[in-house]
Amino acid sequence: MIAPAPGRSGRSSGGPAAVAGLVAVLAAGVAMVAAGSAPGQRTSIPSASPSPRTASPSPRTASGDRPGTPDPDAVIESVRIRPADAGADAEVALASAEVTAAGPPSLDLCYGRFGSEGHRVARRLYSVLATEGDQVARNDVVVYDSPDSARQALTEARQMVAGCPPGVAQQSSVSDQPPTAFQYAPLPAAELRGLAADALAVTEIASAAGAQPRQATRIVQQQGPVLVIVDGYTSRGVALALARSCARRLAALPLPAH
């Protein structure tokens, strides 16, 4: 998942019935891709956070509890950061699976509010921790109620980055983080190889009063109704390697375009 401009609203596309049809289409691909996936556990890293100003609308409920309908969480499990993506000196732990307006946002660039948050039907937020407890990366995988809602989320993230005023402190409305100024710079195009088409990949420098600036690599990828977010807090190479692993699994899912 990202850390967080005024919220932007977007089209709603589909309700519970649309979600049921959507997850049914995903079933075959999830079965193939998720077969090789294991629950989060101690893992290793290849060598090599903020929230919206106003609470998002309440999310729609998923219809994955119907007989024969795959759980959207299975889609998440099939593309998330796995044990093989990290090394013996790191641990992958579930941090949150909450999609309510009161829970952690998935998108929080520039402490903005994102209308697409209300269209999440399932999400899991994972932390990648070094042995000594330092956070190496964060991985938020989200299933929305339609591909249009997931595309809306990626568009909102891109607009928020472009419109975030450098050097102007922003106040989070959903956490007790101090006012923070954000600065964003896109990663070089050559480094985006292996990521999903139209991925958003930026360097973020967050400066809070009385604290040292913190730099992160933030990568957002979308395909069909799924959004995959990787935030890296160490080297850019580590964040890109983790994001590419997720991108390969995301591409293996037969996701509907509409």
Question: How would you describe what is shown here?
Answer:
- The structure is a single chain.
- The protein has 258 residues and is of the alpha+beta class.
- It has one domain (16-252): Protein Transport Mog1p, Chain A.
- Helix content is 24%, strand content 24%.
- The protein has helices at 16-34, 72-79, 147-163, 236-252, and strands spanning 42-43, 90-96, 120-130, 135-144, 180-186, 200-208, 214-223, 226-232.
- The longest helix is centred in the first third of the chain and has 19 residues, at 16-34.
- The chain is globular and about 45 Å long.
- The two termini are 24 Å apart.
- Mean pLDDT is 78; it is low at 1-69.
Strand order of the largest sheet: 1-2-3-4-8-7-6-5
Discrete helix count: 4
Using only C-alpha atoms, the radius of gyration works out to 17 Å
> Could you say which overall geometry the principal axes of the C-alpha atoms support?
globular
Identify the CATH class. Alpha Beta
Average of the residue pLDDT scores:
78
CATH topology term: Protein Transport Mog1p, Chain A
Biggest sheet character: 8 strands, antiparallel
Task: Name the structural class.
Answer: alpha+beta
Fold blueprint:
Layout: H1 16-34, E1 42-43, H2 72-79, E2 90-96, E3 120-130, E4 135-144, H3 147-163, E5 180-186, E6 200-208, E7 214-223, E8 226-232, H4 236-252
Antiparallel strand pairs: 1-2, 2-3, 3-4, 4-8, 5-6, 6-7, 7-8
Helix pairs in contact: 1-2
Summary keywords:
about 260 residues, alpha+beta, Protein Transport Mog1p, Chain A, 8-stranded antiparallel sheet, 8 strands
